[in-house]
Amino acid sequence: MLAVWLGNRRLTVKVNLSPPEPGAGEALIKVLLAGICATDLELVRGYYPFVGILGHEFVGEIIAAPGNNQLEGRRVVGEINLVCGNCPACSSGRSHHCQNRTVLGIVGKDGAFAEFLTLPVKNLHTVPESIPDEWAVFCEPLAAALEILEQVHILPSHSVLVIGAGRLGQLIARAIALAGCELAVVTRWDAQIDLLAKAGVPSIKEKDISPGTWDVVIEATGSPDGFKIAREAVRAKGIIILKSTYKGNLELNISSLVVDEITLVGSRCGPFSPALHLLQSKQVDPTPLISNRYPLSRAIEAFELAAQPGVFKVLLDPAE
Questions:
Q1: What's the domain count of the chain?
Q2: Residues 6+ away with beta carbon under 8 Å from 275
Q3: Distance between CA 37 and CA 231 in Å, rounded?
Q4: Digit-coded pLDDT (tens) for 31-70
Q5: What is the pTM of this model?
Q6: Within a domain: residue 273?
Q7: CATH of the domain at 295
Q8: How far is Cα 134 from Cα 267, in angstroms, rounded to an integer?
Q9: The domain containing residue 109 runs over which residues?
């Protein structure tokens, strides 16, 4: 099996790995397309000491599902957290924070940058026939964007600022726009502005942010610098939603957060069913975000491109 392997912060393409064997309650999935995201790039930089096959954004076809043969042949996307179902977090409905979880391509579980992967059947969502692979591969990051709307009740009267107009920031902007609020996205590159304009989303430059005026600020830069901008932009008693994960620490002025009564909300994985609905109904078209597509065998080149400023989604195709 061909796969992209990370070890000692070094990527290699391995050609002779054995395909994974599905365990009890799992399915063997042939990967049709996979997407490189900022978390994958941060893992290469040492964000978390993962060793194995990278990748967690994918669309695939079920090849085998022992005990669930009726599922074979279905196109699916998959939730990335593998949970125990028994710990206090799982028992209280917080399974995404399972104390014993592994995470596809991130923590203790080989991922999607391979010809095949395995996931529990309960993690899988069938992709409607009307959604092409190039759309379906965006389901996981779109779900992560929609998690914001699950966590914070954004009203049409709210002013919302998204800081970061990269891969995730673009999807967040498209999801938040559906709330009908006053929305703007901080941009740095002309390509970011163009993509937002095509989606009907206004953009502004950092220098034009009115300090202390925004009800909700979403930080999705993938950099510690983003929080400083968010903190300056949010109003007293406002909300900062944190989407970035990166290697390193962040210095905070806790006193100012307390005095201004700022709410910080960490935001990670999100709901797949609403994401599939938005894709099927074409309320969100993610395909303008595709910068390039590479065969899995050329994954190293794909990662080099994905790491360049101004590049959006780079896809890997095991079949090419």
A1: 2
A2: 139, 140, 142, 143, 146
A3: 25
A4: 999 999 999 999 999 888 999 999 999 999 999 999 999 9
A5: 0.95
A6: no
A7: 3.90.180.10
A8: 25
A9: 3-138+286-317
